[in-house]
Amino acid sequence: MTASRPSVADFFLRLDGLKLIERRTYIGGGKRLENSAEHSWHVAMAAWALASYIGWDVSTDKLLKLALVHDLGELDAGDTFLYSDDREKGSSKERDCVSRIAEQFGDLIPDLESLWDEQELGATSEARLLKIADRLLPFLHNIASDGKTWRENGIAKSQVLAMHAFIAESAPELFNWMKAQLDIAVDNGWLIDG
């Protein structure tokens, strides 16, 4: 390898930075905050399992690749909270980061940028399934932690419904279950009713 060309080791160490990106999702029933590397692995496993559970005919190879790249932009941008008013700006920063990574390490994963774009746009079956898993997991963590993130951030039921509404079209049974959990969360004071 030439001195001017980044090595595969440089790429692996760059990816390792996802372990340092703290999310607002509590894991272990509220014991600690999750990091983006843990989340990416969890989303990959969940999407893979959901494909079978929901019965979607998707490319597992593509699905897992999308899951693994979906939070790479957080290396520079950090995590954008799901209920943030600034989500579009966060997405733009993430896209810029992925472009830089692809420019520097594109010979290792030539389709890195196009994979990230695919998951971001959510137009393919694999990308839609990934988005369901990506939204479902923090939802489950909130249920398991008595709404800890929701309570800390003053989140309302209507906000959660708005961010998860797309699931109703693709997985209505799952969405109905989620809505029932939201009613319980409101009754328990974990979410603002509104």
Plain-language structure description:
With 194 residues, the protein is mainly α. It has a single domain, classed as Hypothetical protein af1432 (Orthogonal Bundle). The protein is built from eleven helices and two strands, in the order αββαααααααααα. The protein has a two-stranded antiparallel sheet. Strand 1 and strand 2 form a beta hairpin. Helix 2 (36-54) crosses helix 7 (125-144), helix 5 packs antiparallel against helix 6 (112-121) and helix 6 packs across helix 7. The longest helix is centred in the last third of the chain and has 20 residues, at 125-144. The radius of gyration is 17 Å and the shape is globular. The mean pLDDT is 94.
Short description:
The chain has helices at residues 8-16, 36-54, 60-69, 74-77, 87-105, 112-121, 125-144, 148-152, 157-164, 167-170, 172-187; strands at 22-27, 32-35.
**Based on the structure, what is the oligomeric state of the protein chains?**
single chain
- Per the CATH scheme, the topology name is Hypothetical protein af1432
Mean pLDDT, to the nearest integer, reads 94
CA-atom Rg in angstroms: 17 Å
Keywords:
mainly alpha; two-stranded antiparallel sheet; 194 residues; Hypothetical protein af1432; single chain
Describe the secondary-structure layout:
Layout: H1 8-16, E1 22-27, E2 32-35, H2 36-54, H3 60-69, H4 74-77, H5 87-105, H6 112-121, H7 125-144, H8 148-152, H9 157-164, H10 167-170, H11 172-187
Antiparallel strand pairs: 1-2
